[in-house]
Amino acid sequence: MSQQRSDDVAVLTPSGRLEAFSDGVFAIAITLLVLDLAVPARDQVRTGGLGSALAHQWPSYFAYLVSFLVIGIIWVNHHTMFSKVNLVDRPVLFANLALLLVVSALPFPTRLLAEYLTAGSDAHAAAAIYSSTMLAMGLAYSVLWIAVTRDVGLLHEHVDPVASRAALRRFGLGNIVYLATIGLSFVSAIATLSVHAALALYYCFDQLATPRAKRPRRSAG
Amino acid sequence: MSQQRSDDVAVLTPSGRLEAFSDGVFAIAITLLVLDLAVPARDQVRTGGLGSALAHQWPSYFAYLVSFLVIGIIWVNHHTMFSKVNLVDRPVLFANLALLLVVSALPFPTRLLAEYLTAGSDAHAAAAIYSSTMLAMGLAYSVLWIAVTRDVGLLHEHVDPVASRAALRRFGLGNIVYLATIGLSFVSAIATLSVHAALALYYCFDQLATPRAKRPRRSAG
Amino acid sequence: MSQQRSDDVAVLTPSGRLEAFSDGVFAIAITLLVLDLAVPARDQVRTGGLGSALAHQWPSYFAYLVSFLVIGIIWVNHHTMFSKVNLVDRPVLFANLALLLVVSALPFPTRLLAEYLTAGSDAHAAAAIYSSTMLAMGLAYSVLWIAVTRDVGLLHEHVDPVASRAALRRFGLGNIVYLATIGLSFVSAIATLSVHAALALYYCFDQLATPRAKRPRRSAG
Amino acid sequence: MSQQRSDDVAVLTPSGRLEAFSDGVFAIAITLLVLDLAVPARDQVRTGGLGSALAHQWPSYFAYLVSFLVIGIIWVNHHTMFSKVNLVDRPVLFANLALLLVVSALPFPTRLLAEYLTAGSDAHAAAAIYSSTMLAMGLAYSVLWIAVTRDVGLLHEHVDPVASRAALRRFGLGNIVYLATIGLSFVSAIATLSVHAALALYYCFDQLATPRAKRPRRSAG
Question: I need a surface site. Which of A125, A134, A135, C24 has the fewest CB within 10 A?
Answer without folding.
Answer: A135
